[in-house]
Amino acid sequence: HTMGLMTQHSKLRVAWMVATIAVCSGVDWEDSPILTDTWRAVSTGDFNTLLAIVVSNDPGIVHHRASDGRGPMWWAYEFKNPSALALFKHYDVSESEADANGLVPADTFEGSAEELQQLRADADTRVPGIPAMVQQFADKFEEMRKQQADRFDDGVQFEDEIAPGVDLSGVQFDDDEDEEDYLDDEEEAEDAGPRGGGAPMSDDDISAKIAALKAKAQAMKDEV
Q1: Helices (H), 26-69
Q2: 114 touches 85 (CB < 8 A)
C-alpha cells in the first residue's frame, strides 16, 4: 500500500514538473503540421527546406515544442545537424530547457563528448553566415509575393499559381516520397548549408524551394 502511494505521488510530481516546465517556457507543447515538416527537414538534413519553412512562416516556430516537450533544438542534436543547430542558435532557441522526460537538447545526442564538442564547433562556424541566408530567402519570398500580387491586380491568374493568403503552416511532405529524392535533398542541403563565409544560394534555388512549399499548400487547400 505504501509503495502504491509512493508511485502515485511520483506520477503526480512528474506531471506537475512537466506542466511547470511548459508554463515557464512560455510555449505550448502541441503537435502540429509545421513541427512535423520542421522535424522532417532537420532529420533528413534538408537545410534549404528548413530555411524556407522558417522564412515563409513566423520565425517563432523554431521555439515551438511538440507534445513530448521536444522541439527543433532537440532534433538538431539528435540528428547531428550542424546547419540546423546554427539556425536555431541564430534565433536564440534555448538549450537549457527540458522536455517531458527532463532531457535538455544536448542529451539527445548519441556520441562521445569529443563528437558533441565538434558538432557545436561546426555549428558555431556556420552561425555568422545565417543572417545573410535568411535575408536572401526573405527578399526572394517577398519578391515572389509582390509579383503574384501584381498579376492578380492585372486580372491574370495562372492555373499553377496560388491565391494570396494561402497558409503555408499546413504544408506537409508526402510519406511516400522516393528515397532517392530524400538522398538528393540531403546532398543538396550539405552543399548549400551555411559555412562561415560560404556562397549564398542562387535565386533559382530559393525560388524552387519556396515554390515547392506553396505547391504543397495549394494541394492541401484543393483537397479540402
Answers
A1: 33-43, 47-56
A2: no
Q: By the 8 A CB rule, do 97 and 25 touch?
A: yes
Residue 42, class by beta-carbon neighbours within 10 Å (0-12 exposed, 13-18 middle, 19+ buried)?
buried
CA distance 39 to 1: 43
For the record, the C-alpha cell of 199 comes out as: 556562397
Of the candidates 45, 40, 39, 36, the residue with the CA atom closest to the CA atom of residue 188: 45
Q: Helix axis angle, 33-43 relative to 47-56, nearest 10°? A: 150
CB 48 within 8 A of CB 209: yes
Pick from 222, 216, 224, 223: which is nearest to 168 by CA? Answer: 216
The total of other beta-carbon atoms located within 10 Å of residue 112's CB is: 9
Q: How many CB atoms lie within 10 A of CB 86?
A: 26
CA 113 vs. chain centroid, Å, equals 25
CA angle 186, 192, 197 (to 5 degrees): 145
**pTM exceeds 0.90 for this model:** no
What are the pLDDT tens digits along the chain (224 aa)? 544 544 554 444 444 444 444 444 456 799 999 999 999 999 999 999 999 999 988 889 999 999 999 999 999 999 999 999 999 999 999 999 999 999 999 999 999 999 999 999 999 999 999 999 999 999 988 898 888 887 776 655 444 444 444 444 444 444 444 434 434 444 444 444 554 444 456 666 676 767 677 666 556 555 54
Residue 29 three-state SS: strand
